[in-house]
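#struct-pred

JT: dropping the chains for the assembly here, can someone run the whole complex?
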Amino acid sequence: MLFRSVYNEFVKIAAKPRSYLGIGSIVILVSIILFALKADGLSFISFVTASFEQTLTFQGNILNGNLIAFIILQMLIIHIPLLVALVTGDLVSGEAAMGTIRMLLTKPISRTKLLLSKFIAGGVYTLLITVFLGFMAVVVGKLMFGSGDLIVLNSDGLVILQQDDINWRYFGAFTVAFLALLTVSSISICLSCFSDNSIGPIVATMAIIILFTIVGTLDVKIFDGIRPYLFTTHMASWRSFFEDPLPVNQILQSVTILLIHNAILIVVSIIQFNKKDITS
Amino acid sequence: MSDKIIEVKNLTKSFGDFQAVKDVSFTVYKGDVFGFLGPNGAGKSTTIRCMLSLIKPDSGQILLFGKSLANSRSEILSRTGSIIEKPDFYKYLSAYRNLELFSGISGKPSSKKEIYEMLDFVGLSGREKDNVGGFSHGMKQRLGVAQTLLHNPDLIILDEPTTGLDPQGIIDIRNLILRLRNEQHKTILLSSHILSEIEIISNRMVIISKGKSVVEGTVSELLNSEELIVNFELDDLEVGMKLVSNHFPSSNLVKINDAHFQASITKQQISEINKLLLAHGINIYSIESKRKLEDYFIKIINN
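RK: done, full complex below.
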């Protein structure tokens, strides 16, 4: 029954026009970035590397597919949560708003299984969005700009990564980015269990991300205690894969905190969904 | 009668300070077409939602097929089909795809052939691939019936199934219920605002008012236990009324116009008055019984 319910959720997601908004947005945004960098990428690079040009000489193809993918990931990872929440925030409350929740819950599937199927479908959708973003950034980026060493500017300075040492880093980075987006998906589905309005959970998810991001970046002492536990703090942990040496403990800590967030959100959702009276 | 299909005992449910259902009890037996009556806000939908595990009751007991929802929800719901208020579907999916989705989690998944046959049964043949978003209310209602029947349930719960339908749609749904009763011997719980429908279709009924069950029994017993309001149309009204008044002094005669009078009498007294008037050479043009479920219902609710 769980398998069948997951299939049902995929059918519904695939049939909804808004599900393609994410894919369409990524195509448009990545295309704009790719063509803009193709047209005027060198001046963009000069601007970024200007402060190093007196001490360092850059040789070879700096503006390559690996750098393009890094730039795209950095630019879009902030906006992708909205595209994810747009679909996942509607999974439960959208059924309540449409009235189909009544029809579903008079079938002999348990509420827990029904909700888990929505989490699974939401997770797979998030994975597809992440993989598609990866394809557009890494594969299309390399096809248009070729491969090369990756030069990354982080808080410790300039990191130069050999081109044959990069693919696994992208795999790791996209995996952590997926976990961060999965947390966004779980938040929106959880909020969706508390609402009969399909827009509310989407807006609330974005409000939470904005609020936590502000709390996480404000350099105020009272937030020091909670900052390491906010999921937004770990949304940018994908960048750790482009440091040398790799901060393994920091990455593991981020992965653990994101997984704990997901587990808590799933449990809270199941409790709320099971005790909810369906009056819509 | 045997084989209790539904037993609701002392059901109570509140939403905050508002008590929607207080101490509702009734029993539905195998093969019943059970009328579930009550004015708006009486607690009908809340009771039905409790029976289908959509709402958790505060207290009381619900047994379906002799089993409690708490322990055997999955088994009970796999043997039950329902329409709660109006059937809502995924507007962006076709009629076929909607039925396929609901069938998949019904406990008895149906084949493509069975779904097409069911769509044909409810008169939606040829519209299988059309998105439900373009369906009229009547078509959605018929699709709702298809969804209800697809897994061949033993118990069918229909909450206001004819709401919003045009006269032809109401007749179609009524005929469908009669077919289910007569040909497939299904047990049906029917909540409806159209009381004449309950009178025609149901064999047993319960009336609830302000969250409480007021009366329960067979429709014929409940209606026949009451006096009827009967209109007589005669050629000689004055003589006719005098005769009836003398022979049936408690019949509370009321003159309506020059040709009609009204009497409060029992069913047996209709034929006695008929014989009496004919015996005195008075021609009777029409006899119309006004005592219907509507009157009984209003009397019960007002009491």
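JT: nice. Chain B touches chain A through 34 residues (CB under 8 Å). The radius of gyration of chain B is 23 Å.
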